[in-house]
Structure formats: C-alpha cells, structure tokens
Design brief:
The complex is a heterodimer. By secondary structure, chain A is α+β, with helices and mostly antiparallel strands. Chain A has helices at residues 17-23, 71-85, 106-113; strands at residues 3-14, 35-39, 42-53, 58-70, 92-96, 99-100. By secondary structure, chain B is mostly helical. In chain B, a hairpin with a 6-residue loop joins β2 and β3 (128-131). Chain B is globular and about 50 Å long. Mean pLDDT of chain B is 64; it is low at 29-35, 167-191, 193-199, 208-225, 227-252, 297-308, 324-329 and 453-457. The chains are: A alpha+beta, B mainly alpha. At the A-B interface, β1, β3, β4, β5 and β6 of A face α3 and β2 of B.
C-alpha cells in the first residue's frame, strides 16, 4: 500500500446545515476544526462554515481539506463521492479545486482529485 | 396628508447624487462584457460555482447556461467606481480612515446573470457582496414604475379619489396607488394584447394614436392611462407604501436617482451583514451578546424593553443598531436597522423611503413563501427569514418620523391584508426573468409613447 498524503481542498454546499451534518455522519454541526472520517484513511477537516445569505434564501457553505493517506484510501474517496454525493446531487453541491463536481464518472473524479 | 418622502429632486441628496453622475445611469449605458478585472475573477468564479449548485434550490433557473468565465465588465466598473464613494458619503465617513477603508476594500461583484439575487458570497473574509445584473434591471424597472405612478397620481388625482371611494367606500389617510385594482380579467387581457403586438414605441404609438377622431388628450384619459396602469399595477401593488407626494415633487422624477437609492440601501444592508459577522461560524447571538455586554446592557436580552433598539459601536468604529426587544437574533432585521443607522441623519429619510419602496415591492412577490416569519416571535424558530412586511414595520418604527409613522401605518396594514391578491391577479414571479424582460420591454414602450405624446413623465 503506497503512502501518498494527498490534500484536496473541498467545499460542500447545501440549503440546510443538517443535510451536511448527516452527509458527514457527524453528531454535531460541522464547525471549524471538526474532522470527519469519510472512509478508512480519508479525513475531512472543516476550516470554516458560513452561510451565504440572500434576499431569496440562504445556503450553507462548508470549506475544508480532505486528506488522503494512501492509494487505497484515494479509491475509497471516489467510492464515497459516488455513493454519498451523486444520489443527492440536487441537495448537495461539491466543489473540488474550484470546480463543481457535475460528472461523477470514475475518470472525471480521478482527474479532478489528481489521483492516477 | 402629504409628506415629502425625499425621493424627489432638489434635495441635498439628489444634488450629491448628480455630482456622481448617477451610478445606475452609468451602468445603463455600458453593457457587460467578459473583461472582468483580475481581482474580481476569483469571486466571479466562486459565484458561478455557487449558482451551479444553489440555483435550483433557490428557485433560480439558467444555471446550466451560465457562461464560463462569468462576465462582469464595463458596467460593473462604472457602478463600482461610483457606488463605493456614494456609500462613503451617505455614511459620512470621509474623514474616518478605518471605516472608509473597509468600504473601499469591500469586494462588490455584479455578475451578468439574469436571475434576481443579492447576497454575501463566502470564500474568504470579508465575503464579497453580489448584485446580479437581473437585480439591477429589476430595481431600475421598479424605479421607473414608481415614477409613472407618481406622475399619474399627480395627473389624475380626482379620478383616483373617486375610484378609491367607489371601491372601498373610504379613503386611506395617504393616497395610495391601490386605485389600480382593476378587474384582473380585464387587466390580463390588456397584457396579453400587448404581448401579442410586435412591440415598438412606433408601432404602439400608431396603434393608439392612429385611430380617426381620437386626439391626444382623450387618449391620455383612456388608452395610455389604462394600459399603463394595468402594467404598473402588476408590479406595483407596492407604491401604496408611498404616501402621496406634493405636486412639485411629483412633477419631475429622476428614476435613476430612485434606483440608485434602492441599490445604496441594499448595498448598506449587505455591508451590515458583513460587519455584523452574519453567517459566520462565530454565532451571531454570541457576537451580539458580547457587544451588548461590553456596553453593560447584555442583561436586557430576552427581556421586555420600552425601547427595543440599541445603538452600539462596532470594532471597526462604525455604529450598528440592534434590535433587542426579542430574545431571538434576527439577521435580516438587524442588517436593515444597521444599514439605516449607517446613513447620516440628513440622508436617512430618503434611504428609508427607498427601502420602503423596495421592501413593499418584494412583499407581494414573495408572499406566502414558505418559512417567512410574519412576526418577530416567529423568527429564529423555524426560519431566519422575516417577511418583508415585518421588515417594513420594523424599519419605519425605528426610523420614521412621527408624521411618517402616522401616515404609513394604515398603508402597511393594507399591504399585509392583501394576502394573495397579487398572485391571484397573475402577477409576475420576480425570479422569472423571462416574464420580467417581456414586461420591461412593454413598459419601456409605454414610457416612450407617454413621453412623446402627452409629456406624462
């Protein structure tokens, strides 16, 4: 198992904070410093949670960094994105490296994540 | 009763506005292009990303067609160049380097997006403030409609009074423009008739004035007036928030000026959100309590108070106005109150009028929207969003003169009681830019006809 220690900036966005709390399997709101184990060897550290407040409604934006420790973990991250985000893509937006994830095919995710 | 709401020309604020050559006048002359300044490119990309995900959830369409990169160009530069100095003058902070610097450094972006959206955009602190192009168009449109109503009010006051008395049997204390409550079916037929025309000022003018035996004055009393009222009524069940104006004020209206005041109010509202750390992880309740505690009034939170408004000096040197009459922190209400608190005393009545016009305009468009609180006690329980009527009442209670509060109280009551009138009459959905654009074209046509034939404006 190769060690890669890959850091990937990620933004999660939803209309409801509870939606993101459930997504990350957290017992409390995703505050700064919160860490979430997305899969074995895949950790999300939350840097900041903000609300974008507009006249018509608000969105919750969680910014953080995903750390991927091994090549196997990188594969698990792809699986997590496909299994947890893709079915809820209307409710949750994922932005990786300043790109909105719209194509959840394995090849597209690998390119976006920088995983060979 | 007649009170001057400060939206007319000739005031000190209007003179100051003219010296800026009119931010919105400038933006209307320059179209958006793709040459966004480099410093805004990052924010524009973030906003595009934001909309790609949030557009559907916020009821905004078109996200799939968002251009990449999102344009923002000459018009933006002109508006920004003028908007920030205007805000500084309104706030009276020309000599306060720290406060002035905060405004000068605040990122404003004006993306070329047709949807209605104004917001704080996270990314780094301070967040950017976003005004979409569609929002600016809508504000300009409202301002034009207000001008038409004011002109019609002045031109046809006897008929208005007669109509109101016939409809309701009584007169409100202010002459409000709900006199445009014509038969919804008839109104709709006129709208449809207009929509079927290949609308151009020339074509419509020929249609209206080309009939044998019809002179301009009778047309004013019939076709132009009826059609203009029909159109304006669809948007402006709202101007009845305006106590009617003196003849002199109604005679001439600078619609770009009114639009600019609305933009200034909205910009100050968003600046207040930023200054008050709304949406930040550090909870607003904690932020509020720390400020109030530092002033020795923290204990008043959650307790009834004879004066529910408290002014506090923020870390940046500016002053904010807090609502402490309820235990629930209320971001939108606080941002409104603080925005008006930012404005110097001599300009505040005008900005209060502009805010009133705008919020009243939005009330119908968003009426019944799920989750909006109608009274302060509901806020913070299920939703952070107040209804617009609640914001109107709070702002006017906090800053309106005794005379204004007396005049506007029944008007606000009338707005609140309208319920679903607007939707029942098939009013437009503000978020549907296709409807808005179609009617904007019709409206411009009517305005052009009115200007050339009857000097209505």
């Amino acid at each position: 198992m190769a060690t890669v220690a890959h850091s990937i900036p990620i933004t999660l966005q939803a209309s409801d904070e509870a939606e993101l709390t459930r997504l990350l399997d957290l017992s409390r709101r995703p505050a700064a410093g919160t860490t979430a184990d997305l899969a074995s060897g895949v950790e999300l550290r939350v840097d900041e949670t903000m609300q974008s407040r507009g006249f018509a409604g608000s969105e919750v934006v969680v910014q953080g960094v995903i750390t991927v420790l091994t090549t196997v973990a990188a594969e698990l991250l792809i699986t997590w994105l496909k299994s947890r985000i893709e079915p809820r893509r209307n409710e949750i937006t994922v932005i990786i490296r300043d790109e909105v994830v719209q194509d959840f095919s394995e090849g597209a995710l690998r390119r976006l994540l920088g995983i060979k | 009763m007649t009170i001057d709401n400060g939206l007319g020309p000739g005031t000190e604020l209007h003179q100051m506005y003219l010296r800026f050559a009119g931010p919105l006048a400038l933006i209307s002359r320059a179209r958006f292009s793709a040459d966004a300044p480099a410093r805004d490119a990052v924010w524009l990309k973030r906003y595009r990303n934001f909309l790609l995900g949030a557009g559907r959830r916020l009821g905004q369409g078109g996200s799939a067609a968002l251009p990449d990169p999102l344009p923002n160009g000459n018009g933006h530069s002109a508006l920004k160049q003028n908007l920030q100095p205007l805000l500084i003058r309104l706030m009276g902070i020309e000599q306060d380097a720290k406060a002035r610097g905060d405004i000068e450094r605040q990122a404003f972006i004006f993306p070329a997006v047709r949807d209605f959206d104004v917001r704080m955009l996270p990314g780094e602190f301070p967040p950017a403030i976003v005004f979409t192009e569609g929002t600016l168009d809508l504000i300009r449109f409202y301002a034009g409609a207000v001008a038409v109503c004011r002109a019609l009010n002045a031109a046809a006051l006897p008929q208005i009074l007669e109509f109101e008395q016939r409809e309701s049997g009584n007169l409100p204390p202010a002459v409000v423009l709900e006199w445009m409550t014509f038969d919804p079916q008839a109104r709709q037929s006129v709208i449809e008739w207009l929509a079927k025309l290949a609308v151009s000022p020339k074509g419509l003018q020929a249609r209206l004035f080309g009939r044998p035996g019809v002179d301009g004055s009778s047309v004013l009393a019939t076709a132009i007036l009826d059609i203009a009222l029909d159109l304006v009524a669809r948007y402006l069940h709202q101007p009845f928030a305006l106590p009617h104006l003196s003849e002199s004020a109604a005679a001439v209206t600078d619609t770009d000026y009114v639009a600019t005041l609305i933009v200034a109010y909205m910009a100050l509202h968003e600046v207040a959100h930023v200054a008050l750390c709304h949406g930040r992880e550090a909870s607003y309740a904690g932020f509020l309590r720390s400020h109030l505690a530092a002033m020795g009034i923290g204990s008043t939170l959650g307790e009834p108070s004879p004066n529910p408004f408290v002014d506090a000096r923020l870390d940046d040197g500016r002053k904010a106005r807090f609502f402490v009459g309820d235990h629930t922190p209320v971001d939108e209400v606080q941002a409104d109150l603080t925005a008006l608190r930012y404005v110097g005393d001599r300009f505040r009545p005008s900005i209060l009028s502009a805010a009133t016009v705008w919020l009243a305009a939005l009330e119908d468009a968003f009426v019944g929207q799920e989750g909006r609180a109608d009274c302060l006690s509901e806020l913070g329980t299920a939703t952070p969003y107040p209804s617009f009527i609640l914001r109107l009442r709070t702002l006017n209670e906090a800053y309106g003169s005794a005379e204004r509060r007396w005049a506007i109280g029944p008007v606000l009551d009338a707005i609140e009681k309208r319920g679903t009138t607007y939707r029942d009459a098939r009013g437009i959905d503000l978020r549907d830019h296709a409807q808005r654009d179609r009617d904007l074209q019709l409206f411009r046509t009517l305005t052009a006809v009115a200007e050339t034939r009857v000097s209505l404006l």
